[in-house]
Amino acid sequence: MKRLALAVVLALALPATGLADEPTVVKLRDRAMAGDSIAWPFVSELTTRFGPRPAGSASEAAAAAWAAKELKRLGFSNVRVEPFPLVGWIRGEEEAVLLADRPQPLVAAALGGSPPTPAGGVEGEVVVFASLEELKAAPAGSLAGRIAMVDGRTVRTQSGQGYGAAGAARAWGPSEAAKKGAVAYLVRSIGTSTHRFAHTGSTRYVDGKVAIPAFALSNADADQIGRLAALGERPRVRLSSTASYAPNTRSQHVIAEVRGREKPDEIVLAAAHLDSWDQGTGAIDDAAGVAIIAAAAKLIADLPQRPRRTVRIVFYGAEEVTQPHASDVGGRAYSEPRAGEIGRHVLAGESDFGAGRVFALALPPKAAEAPFGREALRLLGPIGVIPSQRSPGRGGVDIAPLASAGVPVFALEQDGTDYFDFHHTADDTLDKIDRQALDQNVAAWATLLWLAADSEVDFRALAAS
Ligand SMILES: [Zn+2]
After folding, report:
1. Residue closest to 43 by CA, chosen among 259, 222, 292, 228
2. Spacing, Cα 421 to ligand 1 middle (Å)
3. Residue 103 domain boundaries
4. pTM score of the predicted model
């Protein structure tokens, strides 16, 4: 009886699943936690050498060429740069002024895709709406000659849900304002910064165009206009922008692999994006993600034995932009030419939420309860990762087209409480990255990528079972 009890205890103490070569993965995880990876030099060099990397720009292309060279030097297999066509957008010069007896400068940034103003700018009375819904309800023609402003605040959350909720005003505001006759559009920055930075980002093309010039105001400047209106004044603003389009440019993906030792055709894909907005150096969005997945894959490549399946890292181009004909152009440029190979992608994940610590793991349906999920959480638990309460959904913007095509996805959810203080602003710079948190991300990614690549779990079949 005693022997049986001992056997039961031993069975529980050992990996019950056979999925993990435990000492290997513990060593991998702990090496990353100790900061012994390429993550910091990679993110530092990328943001320092190339600075802002707008989609379709020469700096994005140069960063891609550098990244490919680095990945080759580091020993990755099948390193390649895959170009695809893009309509670029260039900010040019811009200015926003509150007009009055005593004019005041405003901190504003044109939204990506916004057309320029006529030379000399556009002027008008600002009509403030509390929400996009309120703007939609305005009577036709009521904004003729005026500037519409949507003044919704972004709610600070750990998960980033506040950004998702506020983002519609940036995406759809310009077309709604134009329908009512507005000559330009303003949106309170879709971000939580209390410093005086305007938060840019793409607006949506409707019928192939952005109808009127559109700008984000810093939170502090949106407050200023709101207070003036509350004092009974009718604030007038002049906006100018020399934004332009580059119709025949290109972006590119950088792809590299750690080839699987038994099933090299089966791919576990890790995604991040190399392009960034133009105001900062795109450190948290998304040089951090690029460095995290590169460092995790490099640690796996350094092991004495490669995992069974291939680990593929993809630095996507053009994640940030929408196009006249499409939104997720970068993600589709990867997935569409690979329609015949989608079935070989066994699992995909995306690191695109800065370098805040990973606190939860979301797995594909049924994987969390399966031995794979229990094993992953047992190994990630000691570095502060708990089971997610959410579904991984379609992942992020880059892997969403893969997810839509049936590729199972996971998410290593990060603490984004302060992410939208910096994201898409001039303040997104390297100093915002906490090195220990970056290392913890690498540890979580290396662990999960290794487990998935060395396992034989069919995540599709699991979900269907
Ligand atoms: Zn991003």
Report:
1. 292
2. 14
3. 92-242
4. 0.94
